[in-house]
Amino acid sequence: MININISAYYLRNFYSKVSILALPTSPAGPLYRIGAVSHTTGIPVSTLRIWETRYGAFSPIKTEGKQRLFAEHDMSKALLLKQLSLNGHGISTIANLDLEQLRRMSNLPHNRPHSLAAPGQPVSIAVVGLGMANRIESQKFAAGLKQNQIKVTDVLADLAAAALAELAQQPQVLLVKVNTLQTGVHTDLQTLIHKHKFAQTIVIYNFATDAVVQAMKYSGLIVRREPISDIELAELLQSVLFVDPVRAQEFGTSGGVIAGRKYSDATLSRVAGISTNVLCECPRHVAELIAQLASFEQYSQECLNRNAEDAHLHAYLRSISGSARSLFENALEKIAHHEGIDLSEGAP
């Protein structure tokens, strides 16, 4: 009897109406029938078979019944081959390249995908987890992001691989898929964020204790539990972006990704209690505003998590409050510089 793992269960929700078969003997994770690969990538089954048999692009496992079973890396390769072939590359010249070579080609300026015609520059994302990368690069998911283009610059198999990787660019967002959240995962993520200076980090998980989830939220990470639909995931990504490029320019910002919190509640409380010579007690007022905006930002995020029907509204509210919070943090830094206030964590 075949034991179907938990990740395969959630992938079934994602690939609705598509038959998916996960085998525990596969070290790379779940395996997919050719119909599921076709549904996700938008590549006809006949084309996938030609790419496999004529050009050797894939080496799927074949069952006794001659069914083809494709791994996660095959799904990734199919998506990249489709993108590059649409950009003019002959399949015969790229079919035998590995994932790293294909991704480097796809990230060249003239090869960037144009499926998300959005204003401004695309937001760069590093993804940990092949399944998650395949999902957000699929044609179906691309339609869910209405305003901002995203560009996957790096795909890492897991956190261990991410810790050793030298990323191709400086991605603005880190998107991570893990089955279980533990204290060690939180530590690994903080190390990764410190190394690469991601503006925002989103973590999708299956199981975790409340204590670990809360600790990750307090450190500025966006944490969301599976199952999460394509629409919800798109809104989640949208919530970390400036949603109004024109208004962003009016505020003197360039749009793009909203940075995570710079200052903890403890630091803001300390600053609010400092007496200065600034008129109207600006440090106190600005620190209190930042704390209130951060609270509303978290509240909107939790509403986004709970209510799929109102996800777009709460994504917008979180984006607006996050933008305002970031602007006031910049203002607090100017005040602190003027008044000689130490904003570092744990300062007296």
Description of the structure:
This protein is of the alpha/beta class and 348 residues long. It folds into 3 domains: 1-112, Orthogonal Bundle (Multidrug-efflux Transporter Regulator, Chain: A, Domain 2); 122-241, Response regulator (Rossmann fold, 3-Layer(aba) Sandwich); 261-339. Helix content is 49%, strand content 13%. A 5-stranded parallel beta sheet has the order 6-5-7-8-9, with helices on both faces. Strands 1-2-4-3 form a 4-stranded antiparallel beta sheet. α12 (230-238) runs parallel beside α16, α14 packs antiparallel against α15 and α15 runs antiparallel to α16. It is elongated. The termini are far apart.
Quick structural summary:
This protein has helices at 6-14, 34-41, 45-53, 72-86, 91-94, 99-106, 130-136, 139-142, 159-164, 183-196, 210-218, 230-238, 245-250, 265-272, 282-306, 311-339; strands spanning 20-21, 31-33, 61-62, 68-70, 123-128, 150-156, 173-181, 200-208, 222-225. With 348 residues, the protein is an alpha/beta fold. Mean pLDDT is 75; it is low at 1-25, 110-119 and 243-254.
Which terms summarize this structure?
348 residues; alpha/beta; Multidrug-efflux Transporter Regulator, Chain: A, Domain 2; Rossmann fold; five-stranded parallel beta sheet; four-stranded antiparallel beta sheet; disordered N terminus
